Amino acid sequence: SPTPRWLFGDQLGPHFDTRGRDVLLVESVHALGHKPFHRQKLHLTLSAIRHRAAELGDRATLLHAANYREALREFGRPVDVHAPTSRQADRFVRTLADESLVDRVDPAAGFSLSRNDFREWVGDRRTVRMEAFYRFQRERLGILMDGDRPVGGRWSLDEENREPPPKGAPTLDLPAPYRPREDDIDEGVREDLDRWTRDGIIDPIGNDGPRWFPVTRREALAALHRFVEHRLPHFGPHEDAMLAGDPVMAHSLLSVPMNLGLLDPLEVVAAVEDAYRAGRVELASAEGFVRQVIGWREYVWQLYWHFGPDYRHRNEHGATGPLPRWFARLDADAVQARCLSDVLAGVRDHGWVHHIPRLMVLGNWALQRGFRPSALSDWFRCAFVDGYEWVMPANVVGMSQHADGGAMATKPYLSGGAYIHRMSDYCGGCVYRPSERLGEKACPFTAGYWAALDRMSGDLAGNARMRRPLQNLRSLAGVEQVLAQERDRGAGPP
Ligand code: SF4
């Protein structure tokens, strides 16, 4: 009979080849407990693994073991495996091959482009920008193309997708996102997680709560369908906006099933393109979403390997601050700043907020306060249900913290309260004022913006895109008082 297939917890869909094979699934105590993961992230992973085992029935062996090596020894037959998604795990399975516990390592699945083809595309390019990669992907895959031209004549309609939230509306008032129904397997997972927490085997962060995300192929397809038919038409315009009363807005929540390996990114963009071609979705929404999937998602995956193991330690601005406990453990109630409190509460309660609160609230705060980029990257990986080792270095160290000397982004994503005020409805109900930088009502994001700019002014002096903000800093009235005020504020919750 063919060699059994070992599936990791992010390799659970049909594009990980299990045809006619026995399948090994492992719950490794070490993998679950070695970092403070979000409680709901652990739940999703375990629930997905157990559901997959139940689906496969007799063909599946599900082992609960101290670690993967022990599980393979117990299983007693060599296995084939698709290359895992982290450098460490990749090295590890190759060691297991040397020990004859693994027979063959197949290429990674769940991404549209192989690492070799990416290397070939990079060639001797000095910079690897997202725009060029995305265009290459569209052309290569023939997605949203008219012959050799992009549909509609432009590669990106991003400019149409930056609208603030609708004025005065507490929500976008859209059809609700797909929600799964929990079952006995979820109940079992919950009991195990409670017990392991009591026994000190795991130390999760965040709250438990009803499961928001798919864990089976069937659920993942239902979530995809629901999004494309009912919510995608509204995705584009307010993609970058935030509403306190509508944390999901028109976002898809599909990063979770894609990163669990339940959905293939190509089937996701095919469904989106079909909806566009059938006239059910505007191009700005279809293109904006396709760009996230075959553009951004694949780009950060490839960069994880391309930039190499030292990338996550890049620290261009010399930021060495630890993550304060209130931030790391999601103590939203300790925070008065309404935007930051609400976003931390979202992560605490769901392990998920969309990309703008991640970038412009959490990442912006960390950049302003000088948190160490590698520690922040680890935290994002653990606290978010879609966070994996490969996801966060480019997103956090590169894009959000600008700690890679500009390899990914041409300027830091540093902003004051005015940006948050324009793009959200947070400031109206806040004890602070976004326009004030001094005194009791000084917005900590606004004051923090100037303090951070001052701290990084040396590093940013040669950056053409930062010339204007640096000039503004030099002519800012009362700058010394702002700096003193922010030094006094220290690392406590704002
Ligand atoms: Fe956030 Fe400042 Fe607005 Fe308050 S005033 S919600 S702290 S940006």
Short description:
The protein has 494 residues and is mainly alpha-helical. The protein contains 20 helices and 7 strands. Keywords: Lyase.
List keywords for this structure.
lyase, Serine Threonine Protein Phosphatase 5, Tetratricopeptide repeat, two-stranded antiparallel sheet, 494 residues, mainly alpha, 5-stranded parallel β-sheet, Cryptochrome/photolyase family protein, 6% strand, binds iron/sulfur cluster, 20 helices, PhrB-like, single chain, DNA Cyclobutane Dipyrimidine Photolyase, subunit A, domain 3
What does this structure look like?
The strands form two sheets. The chain has a five-stranded parallel sheet with strand order 3-2-1-4-5, with helices on both faces. Strands 6-7 form a two-stranded antiparallel sheet. It has 20 helices and seven strands. The chain is mainly α and 494 residues long. A hairpin with a 2-residue loop joins β6 (145-146) and β7. α8 packs parallel to α10 (265-277) and α18 packs across α19. Residues 337-339, 417, 420-421, 426-427, 430, 432-434, 443-445 line the site of iron/sulfur cluster. Residues 154-184 are annotated as: Disordered. It comes from Nakamurella alba. InterPro entries: Crypto/Photolyase_FAD-like_sf, PhrB-like, Rossmann-like_a/b/a_fold, UV-DNA_repair_photolyase. GO terms for molecular function: lyase activity.
